[in-house]
Specification:
six-stranded parallel β-sheet, alpha/beta, globular, two-stranded parallel ribbon, single chain, 33% helix
Length: 211
């Protein structure tokens, strides 16, 4: 019996974050990125020890479980655990190096929100990051991404960062993980800010509640 060969990945998206918790804007960005960037696959990576966060993250096991629930219905996405299991601070450049080694024929597309893009100059080995991947920035209510393969610079990226940038047009969605945690702590409803399965997980595991 001949087994079908796995699909060839030529355009691989990389989408990392704390996902504490993952909300509907996160999953919407993943779906839009796959479509607009014509990705063959998108790896979704909950961060391990986030070097840039000034607060302690919720336990990795909870963030990983919620991320799986949040992205389970988004086509071509796969939750990747490598940063959760990596010792020491989580650096995007290490993940990109590993994926470039695993998929040597693939172009990497690093997907992020505008807030993340603004902090790019502070990222560890940002020059290597821009060498390894095209930086793709979600801009809410932005015009449709160009079909051209030319360089597109985002106004949300500090001009000191040199590289290949693309814009991802994302509908306006006023979602914030910080707001969601505040709502849960104060007993407010989530009002469809997260998917139903994530909302149930938060409730069942008593996450984000005040002591």
């Amino acid at each position: 019996m001949n087994l079908a060969s796995p699909p060839v990945i030529q355009r691989l998206g990389v989408y990392g974050g704390a996902f504490d918790p993952p909300h509907l804007a996160h999953s919407q960005l993943a779906q839009v990125a796959v479509a607009q960037l014509q990705l063959d696959a998108l790896r979704v990576l909950p961060t391990g020890q986030a070097w840039h966060k000034d607060r302690a993250l919720t336990g990795a096991e909870h963030r990983l479980a919620m991320t799986r629930l949040a992205f389970q219905d988004v086509p071509k996405t796969q939750v990747d655990e490598r940063e959760i299991h990596r010792a020491g601070p989580t650096y995007t450049v290490d993940t990109l190096r590993e994926l470039a080694h695993e998929y040597p024929d693939a172009q990497l597309f690093l997907v992020m929100g505008a807030d993340q893009a603004k902090s790019l100059p502070k990222w560890h080995e940002i020059g290597e990051i821009t060498r390894l991947a095209i930086i793709c920035v979600a801009e809410r209510d932005a015009p449709e991404i160009s079909k051209a393969q030319g360089q597109v610079h985002s106004q949300d990226v500090d001009p000191v960062v040199q590289g290949d940038f693309r814009k991802i047009a994302l509908p306006l969605m006023p979602h914030s993980a910080t707001d969601i945690r505040t709502r849960v702590a104060s007993g407010q409803p989530l009002n469809a800010l997260v998917c139903e399965t994530v909302a149930r997980y938060i409730q069942d595991h008593h996450l984000y509640q005040t002591a």
